[in-house]
Amino acid sequence: MQTILPTAAGPRRLGRVMALVAVPGQLAPLLGPVLGGLVLVPAALLPNRDPELTGISTVAGRRTSVR
């Protein structure tokens, strides 16, 4: 892709094309964890009725942590 785009864009638009390719590549490592946190934090606050999904199980009436 990095060899096809400059050839297709030509020398006049080379800087613009390279910026369009580079900017998302630079922003993805920054925005990925932020967006993941925005999805996971509200999901963690929802009431969960299945103890197996929460990592807590009950053995003989005692709550034990499952690892």
List keywords for this structure.
2 strands; mainly alpha; 67 residues
Describe the model.
The chain has about 70 residues and is mainly alpha-helical. It has one domain.
The shape, in one word, is: rod-shaped
Weakly predicted, low-confidence segments = none
User: What's the N-to-C terminus distance?
Assistant: 44 Å
Largest sheet: 2 strands, antiparallel
What radius of gyration results from the CA coordinates? Answer: 24 Å
Query: Which structural class best describes the helix and strand composition?
Result: mainly alpha
Strand line-up across the major sheet? 1-2
List the helices and strands and how they pair.
Elements: H1 4-9, H2 14-45, H3 51-54, E1 56-59, E2 62-65
Give a brief outline of the structure.
The chain has 67 residues and is mainly α. It is built from three helices and two strands, in the order H-H-H-E-E.
